[in-house]
Phosphoribosyltransferase domain-containing protein
Amino acid sequence: MLCDELSLASVPFEVDFIRAKSYLGTTSGALEISTLEVATKGEYSNKDVIIVEDIIDRGKTMTILVSKFKNEGVKTVLPVSLLDKRDVKGRVRDFGQYMAGFSIADEFVVGFGLDYNERFRDIKDVYILSNEGVDRFR
Ligand SMILES: O=P(O)(O)OC[C@H]1O[C@H](OP(=O)(O)OP(=O)(O)O)[C@H](O)[C@@H]1O
């Protein structure tokens, strides 16, 4: 999906990948960011950065990522996400203006890159994981 969109860009750009993981099963834990520290030794300073996510759930990941890029002295940072649990209780929203493709209910979703215990990322579409699915693949 990202590659399709990038091919439409009309300005020069660079792409980096960040491994940010906080979910174990359906539970959000401490956020681990493995490559950002290494990748951002000032190289984003004074640049316009777009952070592309698959989902903003509780908002913790995006909040931390935006804050880290701001600390790198970026010119602008724009969070973009395919899915957005906009009305979830307890959500953190400390990342300012952002763009999202679809606002969704507070259900655990899988497919199209989204996993449950590393399963279902390869499903072509997005599905709500049933309680039976949660138990079966725990
Ligand atoms: O808004 P939040 O509550 O922080 O949740 C959103 C994050 O959770 C998912 O990642 P996950 O931690 O499951 O790692 P993964 O991308 O390897 O599946 C998703 O890809 C986002 O990065």
User: Anything to note?
Assistant: Helices lie at 2-6, 36-39, 60-71, 131-136. Residues 20-23, 28, 53-62, 115 surround PRP (CB under 6 Å). The first strand starts at residue 20 and ends at 24. The chain has four helices and seven strands.
